Amino acid sequence: MENILSWLLWGAFIILMMRFGCGAHMFGHKKHTHNKKQADGQAEAIRWEHPQSAVDPVCHKTVDPRIAKTAIYGGEVFYFCSDTCRSKFEVSPDTYVDGSAISRQTHVSPS
């Protein structure tokens, strides 16, 4: 009888831990003071769109931004024709960033 009681207590303990333990908010989820309306407005303020075409800064080939490999450097997105070109760029980005014929990301304000 003692063995059955022990198993029942352990089973109840495990069920309680699964239900209420480890940060599961035993007494309900408390309300946060985040301003959801403000956060939603900020998310809508900037919309990012791919450019129609892009130029790989390493080999200077024209690439389709929808399927191109990408890297971010200096807060800008750069598009590459292959992993090889992206790897070369990531080793020494200053060598390839000269500001000419490089497609940059575009921010569009909502209308």
Automatic annotation (TrEMBL):
Q: Which UniProt keywords apply?
A: Membrane, Transmembrane, Transmembrane helix
Has keyword Transmembrane? yes
Family annotation (InterPro entries): Ferritin-like_SF, RNR-like, TRASH_dom, YHS_dom
- The UniProt transmembrane annotation reads 6-27
Q: Where is the TRASH domain?
A: 56-93
A Pfam match: YHS
Entries under SMART domains matching the protein: TRASH
List the protein's name. Answer: YHS domain-containing protein
Source species:
Thalassospira tepidiphila
Taxonomic lineage of the native organism: Bacteria, Pseudomonadati, Pseudomonadota, Alphaproteobacteria, Rhodospirillales
